[in-house]
Specification:
Distance between the termini: 28 Å
Number of helices: 2
Mean pLDDT: 91
Largest sheet: 3 strands, antiparallel
Low-confidence stretches: none
Number of domains: 1
CATH topology: Alpha-Beta Plaits
CATH class: Alpha Beta
Helix content: 25-40%
Strand order of the largest sheet: 1-3-2
Number of strands: 3
Order of helices and strands: EHEEH
CATH architecture: 2-Layer Sandwich
Structural class: alpha+beta
Shape: globular
CATH superfamily: Hypothetical protein rpa1041
């Protein structure tokens, strides 16, 4: 699987918000992965990013907007 198969659909600096979005997407049968780009020494610097498969990105965006996430 190449990195072109995944599309970023959400990012935030708070891990709990990423987990909420990930759970909502999973409830809708959309697999997602988290990429943590926060600084290891200062976790308040940087964000976490949520990626879905390229074919699920449009639906994921709709679901995220529908739930005001």
């Amino acid at each position: 699987m190449s990195e072109n198969d995944w599309v970023k659909v959400y990012s935030h600096h708070e891990p709990y918000k990423i987990e909420i979005v990930k759970a909502v997407l999973l409830d809708n049968n959309i697999e997602s992965v988290v990429l943590d780009k926060r600084d290891r020494s200062y976790i308040s610097i940087g964000e976490m990013e949520l990626y879905v498969r390229a074919g699920d990105d449009i639906l994921a965006g709709i679901i995220i907007k529908k739930h005001n996430l």
